[in-house]
Amino acid sequence: MAAMEPLLVELGTEELPVKALPGLAQAFFDNMIEGFVRRGIALDRGDAKPLYSPRRLAVLLPGVAVEQDEQRSEVLGPYLNVALDTDGQPTRALQGFAQKAGVEWTALERTSDAKGERFVHRSVKPGAKTATLLPELVREAIAAMPIPKPMRWGAHEHAFARPVHWLVLLLGGEVVEGEVLGVRAGRNSRGHRFMHDKPVWINAPGDYVDALRGAKVLVDPDERRENIVREVEAAATQAGGTARVSADNLAQVACLVEWPSAVLCGFEADFLAVPQEALIATMEDNQKFFPVLDAQGKLTPAFVGIANIVSKDVAEVRKGYERVIRPRFADAKFFFVEDMKQGLSSMREGLANVTYQAKLGTLADKGRRVAQLAETIAREMFLEPEPARRAAELSKADLQSRLVNEFPELQGIAGRYYAAVEGEPTDVANAIDESYMPRFAGDAVAPSPIGQVLAIAERLDTLTGGFAAGLKPTGNKDAFALRRNALGLARTIIERGIDLDLPRLIEAARGQLGAIGAQTTNDELYDFIIDRLRAYYADKGVPPQQFEAVAALRPVSLLDFDRRLQAIGAFAVLPEAEALAAANKRIRNILKKAEGDVASAVDAARFTDGAERELGEAVDAAVGETDASLKARDYVAVLGRLARLRPQVDAFFDQVMVNVDDAAVRNNRLALLKRLADRLGSVAAIEHLST
């Protein structure tokens, strides 16, 4: 194997797009690795990862072979009956093949396959130097990056996400000569735009991270994020609180700065009268600041900004940060005050003038449907229906508010504040907010019973309405987020342990739609919801065959579905599981081929074989001992007891023939197998576990 040397590739640019930066860096890294592999250049990745900052993308590898592996090729030629004439001399076909290979035909080798013996040309070429291939490899890696709108600059045709200004190509301690995007390679990087605006000499790849750190650039994104968190938390502690550091905000700030420096700022306490979610959204989404919370999680009049420079006059930086945030806070306060003057009831009246969907009416129509469903679901959950109806009636009113118009992410949250101010019961106000939960993947489901009622009712109406109006998702198109709604519905039911008859609720939701409800079916909607659960349970490590085993029974309760799935998981690890699954599969096949209906009653007097009699007695005992467990939905106990049938089942199939000539005996054996199969399949279609 060729010797290895560390490699550094750095592409220096203008500031790259913030949200796209991590993806660009990962693509550049992956494309470079793939290029080495494709060219047969050995490499040692070690724990290498993409390195990047707002002005650079870098690939730093601990070891790359200085030359390719030997290039071996094998080209198959004509078979002997075509290649040689009767005198053993080469035909034109063989001569042409040899000429194309660049050798005499006598230098060709022979090989054999299923069709016979044929000529083959094998060659070995020494590998090219990595330094020779590297510039082209970098160009290919850049060309394959996901850049939807590349920029052009200067008087050339090169294009990239942002203009490129420098290129570092080092293999070992040597510069690799070459040009990429019109820039010649060298060993000079560049430091921080303001704190070290001059070239940075990179002696060897291993010096890269430290050299840039000395030039006030943290090129390792993990180090940069850790630095930001440390600085923000220290500043928040100084203010007597705790910093709110969301993953998304941290990721974006880390792509905005090369040398982060925290600046503690504040704002007037009067603004705290505004819903804190609006203020937090302004700080995080618009300005990329970090709010400071108190011990109870309430917003304090302090926040932390991250500068891309260690300023000599921090007070001026602070003033700038505080100045840009005040107008947005003032707007939020104005909207909030004006909304409270208007009131939720007035907002709710305005929903009659807002179209929800052409075929489904206005938002007021949707509100009425959801309120009726909420009453139905509340009764099913043994809750008082009136609070659920009231919360449903108010749940969309805040869509008419000025605050939600300015901050759409406050849907439900604003309604909770307005309802509380107007004296609505706490559980009603909270439910308005919780009806939107889960808001995103990984978000918690509604915590309160009334919130759960609304979350389920809202999603049921959205799903049934969407399907009835012909808005079923296709490919990547899902205008009404029906997939997300189906999963949110299922998660709320399962994770909060709510036992509901799903088909019956779907039927109720369809009934609320009037004539258009006939455009979809209970089965169609049930199957759509169950299909969302495939990925949900796959993420929890549930094998697909176990999921299919439960889905085959189509449980009407999703909570029951979950319990059955847990039981089948416990059953699958038992030593008897595979044999019983295979036996049940065999029984199902036998019953499918039986002529006419199979009797449900088994006549023990017709047993003629000892193994048959023993199985009959064992099945009787198992059925009797599992009836109560089935009724109590103790599916683990049911399957555990049925696992003990394996010896009798094995003996039956070893010693007894089912399809005998005597019709009475045959039909009785079929009835016995049907009784066994019905009980084995009472929890799940366990035949799906059979490989």
UniProtKB/TrEMBL annotation:
Domain DALR anticodon binding: 586-689
Annotated InterPro entries: DALR_anticod-bd, Gly-tRNA-synth_bsu, Gly-tRNA-synth_heterodimer
EC number: 6.1.1.14
Principal place of residence: cytoplasm
The reaction(s) this protein catalyses: tRNA(Gly) + glycine + ATP = glycyl-tRNA(Gly) + AMP + diphosphate
Keyword Aminoacyl-tRNA synthetase: yes
Cellular compartment(s): Cytoplasm
GO CC term, one of those recorded: cytosol
MF GO annotations: arginine-tRNA ligase activity; ATP binding; glycine-tRNA ligase activity
Protein's recorded name: Glycine--tRNA ligase beta subunit
Species assigned in the record: Noviluteimonas gilva
